[in-house]
Design goal:
Mean pLDDT: 97
Shape: globular
Largest sheet: 5 strands, mixed
Low-confidence stretches: none
Order of helices and strands: HEEHHEHEEH
Distance between the termini: 39 Å
Strand content: 15-25%
Strand order of the largest sheet: 2-1-3-4-5
Radius of gyration: 14 Å
Number of strands: 5
Structural class: alpha/beta
Number of helices: 5
Helix content: 40-55%
Length: 143
């Protein structure tokens, strides 16, 4: 029941919420022991803050929930590959696992030859088509 797809669907719901606010539709959830402890979506336009990415919002929320800055034994599900800034934050948070829906060939951390914490497991391509379509359609509508 609690598969990567199950939690990625929740991240996609967050992306849909962002889309409704005319934000870049990226969503994420953080899970600990099969329990969602944080969920967020991009708020860069709403907050007029370039750091208000879905991952940054969820890291802060999860750390507050846990009462500490480290997210060991937690998994982040995100619809689009994290950028360099979010990669750095996830590295410092020592998150145990990151599950990525769609890759971001231009701005994602993987093609920049960056890595997360050495103990962090990375999985890509979970619900990739759904995760990439929502972003592509958003930018298509802006052109």
């Amino acid at each position: 029941m609690f598969s990567d797809e199950y939690f990625m669907k929740m991240a996609l719901q967050e992306a849909e919420t962002a889309l409704g606010k005319d934000e870049v539709p990226i969503g994420c959830v953080i899970v600990s022991n099969n329990r969602v402890i944080a969920k967020a979506h991009n708020l860069t336009e709403t907050l007029n803050d370039v750091t208000a990415h879905a991952e940054m919002q969820s890291i802060t929320s999860a750390a507050n929930f846990l009462g500490g800055k480290y997210l060991q034994n937690c998994t982040l599900y995100v619809t689009l590959e994290p950028c360099v800034m979010c990669c750095g934050a996830l590295n410092w948070a020592q998150i145990s696992k990151v599950v990525i829906g769609a890759r971001d060939e231009q701005r994602g951390f993987i093609n920049k030859n960056l890595s997360l914490h050495p103990k962090t497991e990375i999985i890509t391509g979970v619900m990739e088509n759904d995760c990439s379509t929502i972003v592509k359609e958003f930018f298509k509508s802006k052109r």
